[in-house]
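Weekly modeling sync, notes
Attendees: S.R. (lead), two postdocs, one rotation student

Agenda item 3: backlog of single-chain predictions. S.R. asked that every request posted to the team notebook include the full sequence so nobody has to chase files. The rotation student volunteered to paste the first one in as an example of the format we agreed on. Action items at the bottom.

Example entry:
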Amino acid sequence: MAAMSNHTTGGTFDLRDRVALVSGASSGLGAHFASVLAQAGATVYLGARRVERVRESAQALRADGLRAHGVALDVTDADTARGVVDEIVRSEGRIDVLVNNAGMGLIKPALEHSAADWDHTLATNLTGAWTLAQAAGRHMVDAGSGSIVNIASLAGLGTSLFTAAYSASKAGLVHLTRQLALEWARSGVRVNAICPGHFPTELNQDLFDDPERLAQVAKKVPLGRIGELGDLDAPLLLLAGDGSRYITGVVIPVDGGQLVRPL
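Predicted structure, as returned to the notebook:
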């Protein structure tokens, strides 16, 4: 039996001396992820178009003695997105973790998708993630280390009614994760993805405002409940930190068992 390394102890989730960027951090999963990373010791940059919200969130984290900054970030503006990454590196000397969380949902029958619906969904959920991953990846490859965590979706692994553009964008993000993992592995850069199931966010607030419908959805989850934000903490910290130093190209569903439920 191999000896247990110190990476299996409490240091697994220790992100002190790490610098992280979380996109789409003005609310929901992104705001939660930023808080989790900051509490683990990282210096966290919260990026979003709603800059006042991320600055307020960053200020609240700093009030708790954590290191956080809010920055204006529109992932569909490639020049601005790349500029945010470069500015973080100029200020901090490095970028160690990128959480590609920015995204948008679209529920509409496929025949009712407009060209603008398709283009905007792909630009936000897939092209935006690609832009940030490439920008951060350049610095990480040069540094010989780094972790990119793409927030995909269960819809990227299966099918879901009336989500053609959304599901396609998330499926693309899943495959992009594997592609970048393969290309950058020898440079010490790890690229992985998390695929959340049903969690409370602004994108699905209508579901959580309907108790009867929410209960019906929960019944279809093998573990018998909807996800809670804290259920994502350990997968995020594992992939962001040294606990996953031998893990790349992995896609982790956090779904209460939905992918394995019987037909």
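Discussion: group reviewed the output briefly. The chain is about 40% helix and 15% strand.
Action items: rotation student to repeat for the remaining queue; S.R. to check formatting next week.
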